[in-house]
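Morning F.,

Quick status update on the modeling queue. The single chain you submitted on Monday has been processed. Sequence for confirmation:
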Amino acid sequence: MPVTIHDRHRWDVSPKEAIALQHDLAGHVITTEPLPLESIRLVGGVDVSVKNGVSRAAVVVLRFPALDVVEIKKAGRPTPFPYVPGLLSFREGAVVLDAMRQLESPPDVFIFDGQGIAHPRRIGIASHIGLFIDVPTVGCAKSRLTGRHDTPGIDKGNWVPLVDHGDTVGVVLRTRTNVKPVYVSVGHRATLDTARDLVLRCTTCYRLPETTRAADHAAAIP
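Structure tokens below.
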């Protein structure tokens, strides 16, 4: 079955309208639904590149746990929204959904190159698109958007909580020994423990999970 898209709102909105939508949508994000890793057969990676006013999304489907690529879908459109910190999903969401609509082998879970609830309004792109597709999603970002944390140990698998205003919104996870960590958070319909475990299982000998590496390569604009 193809991915079902639930159009929760239009995308051509002002930054003020976008913030209001985030406040409303954040209350619908589910962060207490364990992700049954043993039942996952396909995992998706999502990334977007923006260059010269054009946005290109790539959604890559990999077998799990083997991590070989099954399918790659791409979409492009003029970049519809200005760069505003915290409003990435309004810049990238529509083109991501364009790519997802093409999938012939929809994955059981998506890992986004971006934030889940580790966001000032608790709704980064992984959470936002998770609500549109109602499929488990995880955010795995290369940098911190919000919150504070200690430094995790240097070994692969070490992690510390990412805390924002008293809420644990994610983890800072070492995916490769003595290499800069990544920021993992729940997107939608997952728990933090299973999100962290999934990212580790999708990581081989590089800092980023294979889902992100494959999607980043596919989304690149020459």
